[in-house]
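hiii, so i know i said id send this last week but things got crazy w the move. better late than never?? heres the sequnce for the chain we talked about at the cafe, plus the structure i predicted for it. fair warning i was half asleep when i ran it
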Amino acid sequence: FVLATALAQNLAGGSPDGKSYTLQSVFDGSSPRTIDGQEVNNSDGESCGSCSLATAMTRSINTVYYDLASRVGPENVAAMAHTLGVQATDATGAPTLQTNGTTDSRIGIGGYEVRTVDMASAYATVAAGGVLRSPHFVASVTDASGAMLYQHADDAAQVIDPKIANDVAVSMRPIASYSNDALAGGRQSAAKTGT
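okay and structure toks below
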């Protein structure tokens, strides 16, 4: 969501800090780092010194994506997550991806709860080139004679630029192999550890 936010801001003229970010943008991936007054650590002793956003995605470098979330605006990351398929409110009607009305930079490293179905929906949106379809469990129902009793309405909507979805997917392709979880037979996948 953070990367998609940064890439979308490029199309709109740049991020709130006035910069444009690409998969090749270099960040400090050392650990620990203090960002927005918060000490941030990478998991499992990972560190990459100076590394690109693509490398930081593959290696799950928390400090880089926490920093990027701060730069692009945590509330913008939440808005992108909602655009991609994460519900804006929970079952009680309370807003998601915030605490006490505020979203902070920990959204960049998964600091807020997200339902599994919402994460699957968002990943499916990226995989579909930025086309969102509402998640559903039943596609159709027919009776014994084959008459259609129910057909899920296709509610497909292009919610982000296909180039953004492609770049996010490209950044996620090396992750399964890097994490020793590659698909059998060399099949392509896009994944994200820690999600």
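btw The chain has a mean pLDDT of 94. thought thatd interest u
miss u guys!!
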